[in-house]
Please model this.
Amino acid sequence: MTKSSPSARERIVAGAADMISRRGLNATSIRETAKHARAPLGSTYHYFPEGKHQLVTEAVRFTGEWTARSLRKELRAGPVAGLQAFLALWRQIVVDSDFRAGCPVLAVSIEEPAADEASAVLAAAADVFTTWESLLSDSLREHGAEPERAAQLATLIVAAVEGTVAMCRAKRSTEPLDRIAEQLRALVLDAVEG
Model:
C-alpha cells in the first residue's frame, strides 16, 4: 500500500512552515510560499482566502501536530524516550537543513506579526507550546513525577529545546543540543525516580 501524495493545500501549508522555519515570519510571503510549494499562486489564495495570517496560522498548527504525533508515539515508551525523540527531531531538522531551519512556532512567536494577524498567529503558537508541554507533563506524571514538578519540567524542556535550536543555527553546530540532552535526561530521571 503506497502513501498518498499530499494535496496541493497540504503542500502549501508544509511549504509555509518550512519557509518560516528558514526565513522567519516577515520574510515569508504568499507568492514565495506558492513557488516553494510548486503550487499556482491562485490556488494559494483559493485555499487561504484570509491571506497570509490564515496560512501562517495553519503552518504553525501543522508543525505543532507533526511534532506532537512524534512525541505521542515516543512517549508511549516513557518520558526519557519522549525527550530523546524531541531532541532528535530538532537535531535532525537543523542538521538536514545545514543549520538553516529552526522551529516555525518559535519564529512566529518572536517576530512581530502585523496587527491584524497577531492574535490568531500567536494564539496558534501558544496552543502548540501548551500541547507539547502537556504531552511531556502527562508522561512525567504517569511515570511518577509530582504534578507541579512535571509541569515545570515540561516547560523547561520545551523552552530549552526551542532556545537551543536557535543557538545551533547561530553556532552552526549541534553542540548546544548535545549539551542540554544529558542535563534534561538527568532531570527527567530524577523527577520520575525521586
